[in-house]
Amino acid sequence: MKKLLAISLMLLLTTISAGAQNIRLGERVPDIDARTLTGEQLNNLKTSHVCLIFTHFDSAPANEALVELFDITASYDDLTLVLLTPQGYQDVTELPELPLRKDVIIAYDNNRHTLQAYGISYVPFVVIYDTKRCHARWFGSIHSLDNKTLDRVITPKNNR
To answer: How many angstroms separate the CA atoms of 120 and 54, rounded?
Structure first.
């Protein structure tokens, strides 16, 4: 009886957590409702993939994770990194000391619309999608992303 109760509880919790996720691999990602720092249009990026990073600039652990991610992604020329913060444009008084590159775009979520559309409940969180069809290729914790995963996600199957 205890086993049956435990299994039922696990199934219920799995169903609840699966329902909370608003993005699915291979499906179109929600639109991004954000203002960029320099005015780039996020729907007209020239690279084949976007690494959308939900972060908060007042979080030291999130900023440290960003620096590690910048190192991991440095050799990928066809990847744009978009740092999306729920902080309003007027709320960010000072950007953190990050080793920003030309392939990094800072964006401010308009009234948290994008966080809600993606169902993001914690930061830093990463979503990688292709820019041609806007389909999700990978998502998860920033700490789960490494070079092996990036190679698998953004390299076409016929080039592996």
So the answer is: 8
The CA-atom distances, in angstroms, between 133 and each of 2, 8, 48, 77, 93 are: 47, 38, 10, 19, 35
DSSP β-ladder status, 104-109 and 79-85: parallel
Cα Rg, the chain, nearest whole Å: 17
Look at the chain and count its residues: 160
Q: Mind listing the pLDDT tens digit for each residue in 21-66?
A: 578 899 999 988 888 877 777 878 889 999 999 998 888 899 899 9
Strand order in the sheet with 34-36: 34-36, 104-109, 79-85, 49-54, 125-130, 136-141
Q: What is the model's pTM?
A: 0.80
Range 88-91 contact pairs with CB under 8 angstroms and sequence separation of 24 or more: 89/35
How far is residue 76's CA from residue 57's CA, in Å, rounded to a whole number? 24
Cβ-based neighbour number of residue 53 at 10 Å = 25
- Please tell me the distance from the alpha carbon of residue 108 to that of residue 19, in angstroms, as a whole number: 26
Four-residue CA torsion sign, 121, 123, 129, 133: positive
Cα(17)–Cα(37) distance, rounded to whole angstroms?
34
